[in-house]
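Q: Study each token:
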Amino acid sequence: MLRREFLKFSAMLGSAGLMPTLLGGCTAPPLPGTGKVTTSTTVCNICFWQCAATLYTENGKPWKITGNPGDPHCNGRLCTRGTGGIASYSDPDRLRQPLIRVEQDGKQFFKPVSWDQAFDTIATRMQTIGDRHGKDRIALFSHGGGGKHFQRLLQAFGSHAYAHPSFAQCRGPRETAFGLTYGEGVGSPDRTDMANSRCIVLIGSHIGENLHNSQVQTLTQALEKGATLITVDPRFSVPASKSKHWLPIKPGTDIALLLAWINVIINEDLYDKEYVARYCSGFEQLTAHVQPYNPEWAYLETGLETEQIRTTARTMAQAAPATLIHPGRHVTWYGDDTQRCRAIAILNALLGSWGRPGGFYKQEKVDLPTFPAPKPPGPGEDWMTQVQADYPLVSTGISNVMIDKSVGPDAFFKGWFVYATNLTTTIPGVQQQLEQAAQSLDLVVVIDTMPAEITGYADVVLPECTYLERYDDLRNKAERRPTLALRRPAFTPKYDSKPAWWMAKGLAEKLELGKYFPWQDYAQVLDWQLKQVGTSLKEMEKVGVKTFSRKTPVYFDAGKPVTFNTPSGKIELYSQVLAEVGQDPLPGYIPPQRPPKGYFHLNYGRAAAHTFGRTINNPLLFELMPENCVWVHPAAAAKTGVANGEYVHLKNPQGIQSSPVRVRVTQRIRPDSIFLVHGFGHTDPRLRLAHGAGADDSGLMHNVKIDPVMGGTGMRASFVTLVKSEA
């Protein structure tokens, strides 16, 4: 018998018995705002941008949520998804009480239990793992601030194994590449100075569809001032529609275009000579390296006209240094992603944009003291050398590698904590490993607000209350202006859900580690921290956001020396660090695989209505976009015999087939490609709106390319064909 069956627990355990109509009943409700209205400050948690906001409640129920005018993340305006955040509180499908996996008469099911019982179960199994295998054998997968509390818990217990899937599945290549080049990463929010840019280049970056709030606003400001926008994308995206130049590149050939641009800028003497001489090393090696990569060569690879390549390169140079080649966000594509991001970093350096107006500014955050508490002990040994030794340049956990190291009787990891990340859809091509890990692990704990598919593998499910019901750590992100923003509870947690800090503290006390969590309420921690920087919890609950003075200039001081955190102290166009670990010190080009006959490149992206799969079940946002559709070029539609509006299945070369998805025939996609919005196709009936809605792209990804530098999962190298649906 399976140690751990995949369970789809009944609606009675996680949600209400009946789904209310989305638009309400027949009786007309009172006009909004006519009841007793109160306000409270918060920080949106619908995406990682974390905009500060004001929540309005009416007669004790959520009414609306608006942006905080003093917050540089939003400047008083929330995006579509942020305004729908109130529905996360009222969603009837949210988790309601702790659950443990039990077996009776050969059948496994989830049983509601008390928090004390749940903590006892987890603590006992943790101790058993520690006694049998070592306390460092428990891993944490986390997406969101609440994961820090479980990270502290595991460190206190003796494990430092921790991964953000957003590193290996999203931003890792750019942070690694820019770190190798400039000695520091791009940051989050990105340090892009688009409001002052004269030319902006987007390479597969869907600004305007991803709705990273201040990024959209600063891009709009640049366009209003007359900035030139260049968009490189196989699809005519929203930013492509605002562009002077749209380059519909062949999928997978982005490095070829970047190398050709570098070739033109160097050979036509268009680079910033003074900047390169003062701040850069490796220019001679770069010059020799790019000589074969001229626009004529790039045309054969990318399908882009040679004059189009030269014209866009010259346009960038004419606007420099106020030119920004945007580093992108979701940059795990074809397995060569660190090198592609290195090429982007190098191109920015040649144009002199790093540390200059219109390019990249210097970030700062508030120097916020840590609450006085005992520091957890350091690791007994370096777990990374045992788990991910093939990636010596990576200083954080690589989620897909950690999953692989959780399979089999000799697996390194014996237990998992999974906080607010649905591994089944977040990490491509991992379903088999997840099922195998489920049979190997001695403990799986899942913490979430919603019954995501990953809960089906859990031994214990812990229901977290929503962001409108809890205190979290102060938002203290490095940006142009140092700011603090406060999230505080507007409501008592619904049902028997609890905040992450409360769970971690309760588990610590069961494990006799309570000294590492010496607060009674997290408000105590926040108030102490705020008083150290001249404010208080009381003041922040009124204002929501507080801005502090910068200590350093926003840009480089003209003429003053700058030391970069690289081995040479300069911007490294040629990376000796990469050479020393056996990787290419300069970006090269490997032609991508092409689709088999009858197949198309599988491209995916975002939509303004949703934060990937996190919000598909949100009742308000579901109304805006209840399903995704597959974009198909008219020539491809004619060839495959599908029509606009009909439903098809997508099938990969391994025979895996998607749920039905509606066809959108459009010239806004290359004939060799199709496009899906990511996050749909949920299979768990507990998510009653999201269940069966649209197609899941991640389940079709059969050709995942691993980045040799940082271990990330390249997600755009897969192929699908169209199969007519009988649905």
Remarks:
- The CA atoms of residues 295 and 306 lie 5 Å apart.
- Confidence is low (pLDDT under 50) at residues 14-25.
- The longest helix spans residues 115-132.
- The longest strand covers residues 37-43.
